[in-house]
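[recover] target loaded
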């Protein structure tokens, strides 16, 4: 992991995005993965050591610019074990909110061994062969999050071609310069890829899907740097659908993710 090329650099209260946050559709807007990871970073800064984020939902209200951002977090205590965080990602120059998020922070306790647990698939480490998202996913050349900031290794399915997919992913760079990448940051950095790797239309075609929301519900912290993402996208007859993903590590499932998707014509 290259500490020199973080996705964001914090200067005062602003987070400055690097070119590695660039999304696939336009050179002046970010991919959803870095935004989700940045929100996770901000939320984890305000919670107690004996609590953790149980779920995090993003609402991407408009394109997130490659420009300085602020992340504002409000805390609301719901009970002794449940706290709600409401976060806003604000474009610092225009003071415009570009992403809203809600996190549920939960305080756990020591419990007896469960009487039943779902059986996990056999341990499957990431393969040695590296793969990358098809270059056709980008409209222009230059650094991009999906090509340069993350590493992919396929279990099944073909990245860049229609159909369900099962891949391992690893973030190659820190989210915020000077900070170790947390488990939640890795999950959020990966979750927004669900609808992309399980695309039902080819990259670079006349029809594409966008996801205005990402919801991640966490079972336990991730073990290691790699995230396994097993994803399927389903589309209704009106062009509205759902991408559902299972996130895991070598020990089994760590979270689930859903994305509402809508079709559009990018050409």
């Amino acid at each position: 992991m290259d500490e020199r090329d973080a996705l964001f650099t914090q200067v005062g209260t602003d987070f400055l995005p690097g070119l590695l946050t660039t999304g696939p559709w336009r050179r002046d807007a970010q991919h959803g993965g870095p935004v989700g990871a940045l929100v996770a970073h901000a939320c984890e800064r305000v919670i107690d050591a004996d609590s953790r984020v149980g779920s995090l939902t993003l609402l991407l209200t408009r394109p997130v610019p490659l420009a300085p951002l602020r992340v504002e977090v409000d805390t609301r205590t719901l009970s002794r074990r449940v706290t709600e965080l409401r976060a806003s990602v604000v474009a610092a120059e225009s003071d415009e909110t570009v992403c809203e998020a809600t996190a549920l922070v939960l305080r756990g306790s020591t419990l007896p061994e469960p009487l039943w647990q779902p059986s996990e698939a056999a341990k499957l480490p990431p393969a040695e062969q590296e793969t990358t998202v098809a270059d056709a996913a980008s409209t222009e050349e230059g650094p991009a999050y999906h090509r340069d900031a993350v590493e992919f290794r396929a279990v099944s399915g073909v990245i860049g071609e229609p159909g369900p997919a099962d891949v391992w992913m690893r973030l190659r760079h820190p989210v915020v310069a000077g900070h170790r990448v947390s488990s939640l940051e890795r999950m959020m950095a990966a979750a927004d890829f669900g609808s992309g790797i399980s695309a039902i239309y080819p990259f670079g075609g006349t029809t594409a899907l966008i996801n205005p929301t990402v919801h991640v519900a966490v079972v336990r912290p991730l073990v290691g740097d790699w995230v396994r993402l097993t994803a399927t996208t389903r589309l209704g007859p009106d062009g509205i659908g759902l991408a559902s993903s299972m996130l895991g590590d070598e020990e089994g499932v760590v979270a689930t993710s859903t994305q509402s998707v809508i079709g559009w014509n990018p050409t």
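[recover] notes: The helical segments are 32-44, 145-149, 183-191, 194-197.
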